[in-house]
Structure formats: C-alpha cells, structure tokens
Amino acid sequence: MRPNVLLVVLDSVRARNTSLHGHVDETTPFLTSFADDATWYTQARAPAATSLTSHASIFTGLSVPEHGLTATDRSLEPGHSVFERLREDGYRTGVFSENTWITEVDVGLNRGFDEVVGPQNLPFPDAVDPRGFVADAGRGDYAGYVRESLASDAPVRSLLNGVAIKLAYDYPALLPDALRSRARGDTYVDAFIRWIEGADGDGGGGDSGGGDGTGPSEVPWAACINLMDAHIPYEPPAEHDRWGGKRARAIQDDLDEQKWEFAGGQRPWWQKRALEGLYDGAIRQTDAVVADLVDRLRERGLYDDTLVVVTADHGEGFGERSHVRPDVRIAEHNVGIHDVLTHVPLLVKRPGQESGERVDDLVSLSAFPAAVERVRDGGDASNENSPDRPLFVRDGPVVSTAVGLDEAKRRRAAPYVDDLTPYTATSRAVYERGDDGRVRKYVTWRDAAKTVEIPDPETSFVAADTDEGRVDAAFEGLTDAGVTGEGTAVDDLDGETKRHLEDLGYV
C-alpha cells in the first residue's frame, strides 16, 4: 500500500520561539514530544521569507532563482508541483488553509489539488458557500446562486453568505469586523478530516470511498494544511495567551501597519517587541492544533502509514537588527534573510517510524519533493551508497533568497518610509556547517557581504566583512528553470482576494 503524505506548514513560526529549540516560553509542548517519534532537523532553513516564494520552493524543489515565483504577475506552469505528480500517480490531493497564496490566488500553487479549502470566515459555514458556486458557475450568476440557496437545507443562511461575500468583494469597508477575522486552525483540520473520511463526497478525486459509511478509502491521499494561527495579527485564544495579555493586544489593535510603522519610525521598537508575547501564545495555539491533528490520524489508523512533515514557511521579526543592511531592523517578515526569518522547525515522521532521531545537518525545505519521492518509492536512500541517509539531507548548497519590494509593496510602504533603498534589492545567503559544528551564513546585499556566525537559535553575529565569494559560487548554477508563465497583476485581482492579501501584509 502506498503511503499517505501530509505536509503541515506552521505559517510564520520561527525556530527561535519554539520550546523545541530551547525557547524560554513553553510554546511547543507537542512538537517537543513529537520529536520522540519523528526525525528532528535542528538546522532547517526556509528558501525565502514570504509564503509565496517559500511554498513555491517547497512544492517544486527549486530555489527562488530557479522558479522565479515572487509576485502575482507570475504563475507556476502545470506539471512542476509534487502534488500534481502525486495526483497523476493516483493520489487524492487536498489543500486546506486561510492562506490565499496556496488556495485562491492564481499563481499556480493550488493546481495540484483536487480539494481546495480556502478562507472559512463565512457567517454560516454550514450553508452554501458562494465562493464554491462562483468557482463552478462563474461570477455574475446571481439568479443561479439564489436558486441554489433556496433549494438548499439552509436557504436564508445561504443567501446571507452571498450578501457577505458580495460586500467583501465590492464594499469591504462595510463588512463587519466579525466577518473579517481569521478562522482558527482547527477549522481546517476539521475540513481535512472530513475530506479523508469521504464525508464530503469524492473530494474531486474520484473514488474516495467512505461516503456510504464504509470508512476511509484505500486510495492514498496527499495533503497540505497551512495553519495561520501564528501569522499577523496574533490572536491567541485565552487558554494559550500566557505571555501577551491585554496591553499587548491594545498595542496591536492600535496599529495601522504591523511592519512599516516601525520601519518608518512612527512607532517605537519596544512596542514591536511587546507583541512577541502574543506571538508565543499564537505558536502555543498552533502546537495544540497539530497535537489534535496527529491524535485524529492515530484514532483513524492512518498515522503509521503516513509521511508527516511539520515545518514552517518562514519566521517572523520583532526588531532584530539586520547583519548586512545598515540601520535596518526586522519587523514581521518579507524582505530579508535574517535567521529569525529563515531558521524554521522541521519534524519528519516516516511511515512506520517508531523512534526519534536528531539530524544536525543543514537542510532546505526545498528537499520536500525529493523526500516524498523516496518514501513513495519505498526507500529512504538518495543513492545506493548511503542507505541510511535522512530524507531531507541532500547534496548541494542550502540557500535562501529575499527579493526586494515589488511595485505593490512599495506603494504600501511609501507612506511610512521615506527611503525604501534598504528594501528594494535582493539579498542572497548560503549556509554551511563547519567541522566544529557551528553554522555560518554567508550573505550578500548590493555591494555588501558578510559572514555571520550562528552558534544557537537565539544568537547570531557578524564574524567577517566578506563572504569569501561563497554566495556567488553557490548561486552560480541556480538559473531560471522556465517553470513559470504570465500571472495576474495585483491591481487586476478580484476585490476579496486583494483585500485578503492586504490584511496579511502581502500587497
């Protein structure tokens, strides 16, 4: 029987703030215990510091210079996502997330999935979802939506859903705050569980089974669940808000911009640091969601037969100083490759794995497709000479790329920051682990180059004002692979999608 594949992305969770990696706040009790059963990669690096670019690398196995998917004006061409290949191989595929980059925006990342469950902030989730109706019938068929609503089991609630989405598209300022808030991660875990059980029909993937009460299908599945609980704004529920509290929430509620108000000097940096307590609570909430997810896999007898990969697409900044850009501090995420943005947790449980393992080699999240292929083919080895090689350890450099602000992001930042020069050039980094076990990052930005020592997740410092030519050497062979085509300009996105990306700080 072919193994199932589950990729769980803890959006915006940096390694430094997980108790798994030694953080003082107990943010990840489950992940710490999960390491007893899984392989813990202590030195995993994200390929980039934004959801779009990082997910593109995770799905394709390509670095940012190779795939070039950095904004809405490009779109991944068919056939390059690991989830597309799994679907062609007979897998049912699904993606579940509030993050519209992988569910709704036309950048090609959702192309490999039969089932796509995006933002769930409808007033009545159990009624007709107008977004699904539009996907099938196209926009503008209002009479058709009214007929479908009236024929449903919840006609009034379905019609109200339609009104809410219409407001979101055309008059977002009129939308009540309650309908603009984020659905918690357990909403997407619930949707995922319904999907693997076949309770929602065939999920778009053919013979899924289970719809007649006979239980889950024997057809293997592959899914991505992206949990946004630790993404801005940080809104941990009371049981997990152990380190933030009312004063931190008041600071967050008073912000117009989570990033540029601080970068532009309109807000003091201590306020950004104060939000870290809320962030820790949000990570604790995310950890609880993953714990519930794994428990539910175990209850259904699916855990042992599933490749489970738990990681993050990037981290987050709370005022840490850049090592290479003069006078710049890291606020939130996007432009930059500071280790608070690229060092992420990575736990991998192979099918049938019964004991934990610690791997201190540097690895990139772009190794995910190769890891899936090796497990699907029934072996852990990347070649016959290394039969015990961990799944994510690969030959070649571990690199990260931070692309400068595009035009849409410049427009967003300009009212706050007079000089955008520090944010408009691409930064590149290559990571190496020396014989002494210490991690070194060689980084370049414009004409500047540095060697950064990283002795532990909470410490990094400039060791030399040169990269010794290592960045150019590492990136020399990373050229455009021709996997993207023309996409959609930001200004041409539909109103709801653009608003959602604006709420997340991406445009």
Quick structural summary:
30% of the residues lie in helices and 20% in strands. With 507 residues, it is α/β, with parallel strands linked by helices.
Furnish the topology, listing elements before pairings:
Elements lengths: L3 E7 L18 H6 L4 E7 L5 H10 L3 H4 L6 E3 L5 H7 L3 E6 L2 H4 L11 E3 L12 H8 L4 H10 L3 H16 L14 H12 L24 E7 L18 H8 L6 H4 L5 H6 L1 H24 L6 E6 L5 E5 L7 E4 L6 H4 E2 L1 E4 L7 E8 L3 H9 L21 E5 L4 H7 L13 E7 L5 E7 L2 E9 L2 E6 L5 H6 L8 E3 L8 H9 L4
Parallel strand pairs: 1-6, 1-7, 2-12, 4-5, 4-6
Antiparallel strand pairs: 2-10, 2-11, 3-18, 7-11, 8-9, 13-14, 14-15, 15-16, 16-17
Structure description:
This protein is α/β, with parallel strands linked by helices and 507 residues long. It has a domain at 4-121 and 182-394: Alkaline Phosphatase, subunit A (3-Layer(aba) Sandwich), CATH 3.40.720. The chain has helices at residues 29-34, 51-60, 64-67, 82-88, 100-103, 130-137, 142-151, 155-170, 185-196, 246-253, 260-263, 269-274, 276-299, 339-342, 368-376, 407-413, 470-475, 495-503; strands at 4-10, 39-45, 74-76, 92-97, 115-117, 221-227, 306-311, 317-321, 329-332, 343-344, 346-349, 357-364, 398-402, 427-433, 439-445, 448-456, 459-464, 484-486. The strands form four sheets. Strands 1, 2, 4, 5, 6, 7, 10, 11 and 12 form a nine-stranded mixed sheet that branches. The longest helix has 24 residues, at 276-299. The model is unreliable at 199-216 and 380-385 (pLDDT under 50).
Query: Can you give the mean pLDDT?
Result: 87
Largest sheet: 9 strands, mixed
* Termini separation: 44 Å
Global shape: globular
- If you consult CATH, what is the topology of the domain at 4-121 and 182-394? Alkaline Phosphatase, subunit A
Structural class assignment: alpha/beta
Number of helical regions: 18
User: Could you say what the CATH architecture of the domain at 4-121 and 182-394 is?
Assistant: 3-Layer(aba) Sandwich
Uncertain stretches of 5 or more adjacent residues: 199-216, 380-385
